[in-house]
Design goal:
Blueprint lengths: L6 E6 L2 E6 L10 H15 L6 E5 L4 E3 L4 H6 L8 H11 L4 E5 L2 E3 L1 H4 L6 E5 L3 E3 L13 H9 L1 H10 L3 E2 H7 L4 E3 L4 H13 L3 H12 L3 H19 L2 H11 L11
Helix pairs in contact: 1-3, 3-10, 5-6, 5-10
């Protein structure tokens, strides 16, 4: 399977679907996948045939986060990197963005949901923000968006402890719109998506801009600050211990750090 097969792109009935298709690696994102996602999100804004953009994964995994080895070998170098373009596309796309999620949604697999207009989960969805656990820090402006969405206390719990939470808690927190039976997730989500497709597109764009516009500058600034810290954290001794412990299938020991 080539890099181009890792994101399947299709457009039909007003819906552009970006399907993550690297299931053998639990849909961990590579630089090439980031670029494909970014290119298509930007293209959708200029395509009148696209009314809605959908991001989805497989039945058992949405996205397990970054492919760390690929990330280390091809570190993003600023806003024009593939990662930077994807994050900017997420935050600025004018078309309605919908996520259909089941199974694992780890790291960017969860933080990208904060930029989606509608999020539908399967009952098997397992979300997790393990940045601190890995000696890293949040990304995708999640350190700004999450406290505003779920409150500072809950955001601190999710980001500082990095513990897994399920579909129904995500709905209760306002991270997702609804949780469906996994067997009917795609069909149930498509019912709602087709309702969105039928809405007047200019009214959709204006309404989305009115909702998102006031936070746009803050989101861009936080994304940049997180990006700089994240790259530094990747090279930190704490991250090295976390990744080595993961490779050795043991618990990390951060007791020597202060």
């Amino acid at each position: 399977m080539t890099d181009s097969d890792h994101v399947l792109v299709s457009t039909a009935d007003g819906v552009m679907t970006l399907q993550l298709n690297r299931l053998d690696k639990k849909n961990a994102l590579t630089v090439a996948m980031y670029q494909t996602l970014a290119d298509n999100l930007f293209a959708a804004d200029d395509d009148s045939a696209v009314r809605v953009v959908v991001i989805r994964g497989g039945d058992d995994c949405f996205c397990s986060g970054n492919d760390v080895m690929d990330f280390m070998q091809n570190p993003p170098a600023g806003e024009d990197s593939s990662v930077g373009q994807f994050l900017r596309a997420l935050a600025t796309t004018k078309k309605p963005l919908v996520a259909i999620v089941d199974g694992l949604a780890i790291g960017i697999g969860t933080t990208m949901l904060l930029h989606c207009d509608l999020v539908y989960l399967g009952e098997k969805a397992r979300l997790k923000l393990p940045f601190v656990n890995l000696g890293l820090c949040p990304e995708a402006a999640s350190s700004y968006l999450l406290p505003r969405l779920v409150g500072p206390a809950k955001a601190a719990e999710l980001l500082l402890l990095g513990e897994e939470f399920g579909a129904h808690e995500a709905v209760n927190l306002g991270i997702a719109n609804a949780a469906f039976q996994s067997e009917t997730l795609l069909a149930d989500a498509m019912v709602m998506i087709q309702k969105l497709v039928a809405q007047p597109p200019e009214a959709i764009r204006v309404t989305k801009e009115l909702m998102r516009g006031p936070d746009r500058a803050a989101i861009a600034a936080v994304m940049q600050a997180e990006f700089e810290q994240f790259m530094g954290r990747l090279m930190s001794p704490e991250a090295a211990e976390a990744f080595q412990a993961f490779a050795e299938k043991r618990a990390p020991d951060f007791s020597k750090f202060d």
